[in-house]
Amino acid sequence: MKSRLWFSERTDVPSQSPWVGAHRLRHGIWPRTPSHEEISYIADVKEHLASYQECKIGLLDLDDATIWEKSRAVSQQVDLYLWNSISTIDGPPTMVHDLAFETPVPGAYDVIVIGYRLWQAMPGITEVARTALAPRGAILAPSAANISSPSFAMESAQSTSHLFVWRRSRINLLMVAPGLVAGGADRALIDLINGLDSSRFTLYLATTEPQSNTWIKHVLGRVAEYWDIGAMGSDHLMRQKMLQHVVMAKQVDQMYIMHSQIGFDILPWLKANTQVKTIAQFHLEEPGGGWIHYALSRYQNLIDQIVVISHDLKQQLVSKYYVEPHKISVVYLGLTVPESPTPPPLPAPSGEIRILYPARLDPQKAPRRVVDIAQMLQLQQINALIDVVGSGSLESELRHRIGRARLESKVVLHGAEEPAKMRHWYQKSHAIMLTSDYEGLPLVILESMAEGRPAIAPDLGATREVITSETGFLISEPSDIKAYVHAIDQLAHNPHLVETLGAAAHRRVQQQFDPGDTLKKYQEIFLHLSTSGRPPVMI
């Protein structure tokens, strides 16, 4: 007898079901006596499922008539084959549970076939199978035959059953980052998490470094689950194991890694044991290469897609690390831009100009230069106030330097600020200034430009892609204190220049950094890589 296979539409899928696009596969059931028809059946199933990209099939055969020759033949048709004689009533459900959660790779198999005799002999296994396998989907192959009937073999041969092929509608997407603290990269991740279409993605978040994640509150209502793996301490191997557990427990389809060493270091295990697609996101190349060098020099072939925030950074990856251009997607940071720029504040009675310095106080941002700039402004009698909004490892040192130079009235430290409150600071300032040693494309520059404020910043990374002589001031050498002072002096003595540059800056970001475009591009990347085309299937 030859198995017959064809598709027909199923129409009774519950509207609230997480599985959509259901089809019904009708087929003949092979005879009770072991034969090569069973092998042919498995081959036919795999052939019909081949149109769904990659597909792994596992067979759990608990039929006591299984013989070694059949086992060997069947095992050549599937990716995983387990068989055992039905000896106890408790054995098979346990095996089903183990196959779903523990043996040998949880979550890796799209198709699991459970021997039809077991289905009829043990009705209780139905609930076990549905509980253990239904979230992922499985082939559960019941027979319409009555196992107690003397003519069981004939009835099995002539009966039919229905095989439902269900395609999962949502992608399980795991975001992995060192943490969520004050910073442009973390702000961008928060915006991405909050902006992705919840009907297409189930989002999970894992932070991997031991630190206080002060901004985690901005995403807790959006992610399905959050793991603070960094809270486990400094044991690198333990944190890797925990992240591996998360991948398996949540049946992750894709993993998005932003500057996380733990995330990168599990890639060899991930690719050897799962079909999870990986996306690495980079904001900038740090001195010595930083995370870009770490990830690409070790794991480039294990990363399915790379996302960068500028064409400048893409060119660096192509030229320095020989990454194939088609593997790199440029996705600009997105931000909401007001319809019109906010008018700059009126000059103070003293003629003082306000410069905003919104940055982490750490070595990358080089905040010591702020004191040097303020000293030169005072020497040249340029009336300027610098508002420092940020915190970090150099805060105490910076406070000491300000006091020693007696600049407390000219450089004011305000501490870190919540993202939602930054707009207030942009609006009360005449311009924004950064003094970093290295950068990608600072989000604070884009946000200030969106409010109609010109920027003064070093010519680093992709900064030149937004700051020009029409929108602000590019400083050729980050340590050139005179260049910063000269730019501030021009703004202080020409109030109309603040408004002219600010209007041009607003137009620039309005045209180039639409948040809708950013989310659309990210979703296209995730959907393109989606493994949901490999059908989880269920009877």
TrEMBL record:
GO BP: any one term: lipopolysaccharide biosynthetic process
CDD domains from the UniProt entry: GT4_PimA-like
Residue ranges constituting the Glycosyltransferase subfamily 4-like N-terminal domain according to the UniProt record: 183-334
GO molecular function terms listed in the Swiss-Prot or TrEMBL record: glycosyltransferase activity
Pfam families: Glyco_transf_4, Glycos_transf_1
Domain of life, per lineage: Bacteria
Record key words, sorted: Transferase
InterPro entries according to UniProt: Glyco_trans_1, Glyco_trans_4-like_N
Annotated Glycosyl transferase family domain residues: 346-506
SUPFAM superfamilies: UDP-Glycosyltransferase/glycogen phosphorylase (SSF53756)
Protein name: Glycosyl transferase family 1 domain-containing protein
